[in-house]
């Protein structure tokens, strides 16, 4: 007599060919997957086409002067977005360096047996909740908390190390550093979550083999686990950089919106996303053409960054397999 939880198993069932129902389910799934891919590609191309169509008049009128110009003056019909391009790349790079270090460190701390599993799950949830906070809240927090907190330290750097171009100006209010710090916190959950998945995906036998060869805990992490998960970790950095390039509201509130190019971390700056958000509501027909041109440049920068990141990841995967 079978026990209550015994389930009769047909030993030949695993050897049976797929049924008509299995073929039907497989075809439906494949069809839905293809439709989903086609819809996503159609949406991307429609977005690029619509932005490009509205940007064409601005491209024809101003050409490359918009990209190389440094003055944005609607009254004089001068539109230069080079400072905004500089601010976009500069702020995103600083935020990526900060968030990359802390995000990967968090991933190591939460996955490599430094905490009990339940406590690690609580901390993981707290980090992921950072992604749910609205951008405008981050902006307000940056204005009322971050800027007053870091101002004494920035004043010291400017006084003592002002001869360095990175500290050549004082922080009088909104500026590049507060914007980059808040931006780093905003992309931190993405980097930490994807890095955790990459480290968790490394087989446990790999870590056990490292211990078997006599490595310490930190040697196993830094010389075995992190290199094994390096492709996934780099993917998290690319995703974080992509979000940093397109972040709008918090940067519009914190970066200072000054059309200038400066290496100083404390100087006000501008970004393409902030430029678009602040100028679109009151833009006239001529300005809209240039703003669409700027939006097209921002999309192109994001595309180039993601393509380069994908190429590096593919190269790293080939090197790992080789």
UniProtKB/TrEMBL annotation:
Residues 85-309 form the ABC transmembrane type-1 domain. InterPro entries: MetI-like, MetI-like_sf, Phosphate_PstC, Phosphate_Transport_Permease. SUPFAM superfamilies: MetI-like. One of its GO terms (molecular function) is phosphate transmembrane transporter activity. Gene3D superfamilies: MetI-like. Keywords: Cell inner membrane, Cell membrane, Membrane, Phosphate transport, Transmembrane, Transmembrane helix, Transport. GO terms for biological process: phosphate ion transport. It is a multi-pass membrane protein. It is found in: Cell inner membrane; Cell membrane. The chain crosses the membrane at residues 31-49, 89-110, 122-147, 176-199, 220-241, 261-278, 290-316. One of its GO terms (cellular component) is plasma membrane. Pfam families: BPD_transp_1. NCBIfam families: phosphate_pstC. Belongs to the binding-protein-dependent transport system permease family. CysTW subfamily. Part of the binding-protein-dependent transport system for phosphate; probably responsible for the translocation of the substrate across the membrane. This is Phosphate transport system permease protein. It comes from Pseudomonas pohangensis. The lineage of its organism: Bacteria, Pseudomonadati, Pseudomonadota, Gammaproteobacteria, Pseudomonadales.
């Amino acid at each position: 007599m079978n026990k209550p939880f015994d389930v009769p198993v047909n030993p030949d069932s695993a050897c049976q060919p797929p049924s008509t129902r299995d073929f039907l389910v497989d075809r439906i799934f494949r069809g839905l997957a293809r439709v989903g891919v086609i819809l996503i590609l159609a949406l991307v191309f429609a977005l690029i086409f619509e932005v490009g169509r509205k940007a064409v008049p601005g491209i024809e009128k101003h050409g490359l002067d918009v990209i190389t110009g440094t003055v944005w003056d609607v009254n004089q019909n001068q539109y230069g977005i080079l400072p905004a391009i500089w601010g976009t790349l500069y702020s995103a790079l600083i935020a990526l360096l900060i968030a990359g270090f802390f995000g990967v460190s968090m991933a190591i701390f939460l996955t490599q047996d430094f905490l009990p599993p339940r406590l690690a799950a609580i901390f993981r949830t707290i980090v992921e909740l950072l992604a749910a906070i609205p951008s405008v809240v981050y902006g307000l927090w940056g204005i009322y908390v971050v800027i007053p907190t870091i101002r004494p330290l920035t004043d010291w750097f400017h006084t003592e190390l002002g001869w360095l171009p990175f500290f050549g100006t004082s922080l009088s209010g909104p500026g590049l550093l507060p914007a980059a710090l808040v931006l780093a916190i905003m992309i931190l959950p993405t980097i930490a979550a994807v890095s955790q998945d990459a480290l968790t995906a490394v087989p446990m036998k790999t870590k056990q083999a490292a211990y078997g060869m006599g490595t310490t805990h930190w040697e196993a992490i830094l010389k075995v686990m992190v290199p094994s998960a390096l492709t996934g970790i780099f993917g998290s950095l690319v995703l974080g950089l992509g979000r940093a390039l397109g972040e709008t509201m918090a940067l519009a509130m914190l970066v200072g919106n000054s059309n200038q190019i400066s290496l100083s971390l404390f100087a006000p700056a501008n970004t393409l996303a902030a430029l678009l958000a602040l100028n679109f509501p009151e833009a006239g027909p001529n300005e809209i053409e240039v703003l669409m041109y700027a939006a097209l440049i921002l999309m192109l920068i994001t595309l180039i960054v993601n393509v380069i990141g994908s190429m590096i990841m593919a190269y790293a995967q080939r090197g790992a397999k080789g």
